[in-house]
Amino acid sequence: MKPTTMLINEHRIIEQVLNCLERMVHRCEREGWIEEAPAREAIAFFRAFAECAHMAKEETHLFPMVAGTKCPQGCRPSELAAREDQHGHAHLEAMEDAILGAAASQKDSVKRFVEHGQAYIALLMKYIENEEDWLFRQADRVLDEAKQKVLGERLESDDRASHCGSREQYIAIANRLADHFDVPRAELLKE
User: Fold this and answer.
1) Structure pTM?
2) Which SS3 state, helix, strand or coil, does residue 187 take?
3) How would you class 131 by CB atoms within 10 Å of its CB: exposed for 0-12, middle for 13-18, buried for 19 or more?
4) Domain extent listing, the chain
5) Which helix (H) or strand (E) holds 84?
6) What's the CATH code, domain 3-66+75-180?
7) Which of 38, 44, 92, 145 is the most exposed place for a label (fewest CB within 10 A)?
């Protein structure tokens, strides 16, 4: 399996939980409250899997290997990622801070959870789109077979040595949330 296919599969898992968050946000907005446990589990998933495991692998291994290639609007992947990470952290913190109040139907907390949830979903979906439309295609184009192999080995090594938890653990969380919110499970690529 190509390294970018591994990363695309991780995107599908992240999107599955983003779809669950979208359901949470809609329910919260419509009903004026939120279920605390699933909201906390989704935020923990994004912190551990999306940020600690997935994004860290991209920043540590993929970005340096495609460094020097020109990306749209003259940006560099690491600069774009740093800006998006900063905004993502702020949205996650704001949602987490609003959970208790939103679970108790406090209008200000409900509003904050909804606003930051919507912003976080939009941010990550754009991040995924940019990576798949440009960065992963660029990596597939510029990295020869030997570099692809090295990148794949590094990504797999990070999965095995991760202090963030195992991929299987986070797929289980993603599936539990999907089942709870009646969201389809991600279809992962075999190649």
Assistant:
1) 0.89
2) coil
3) buried
4) 3-66+75-180
5) helix 77-103
6) 1.20.120.520
7) 145
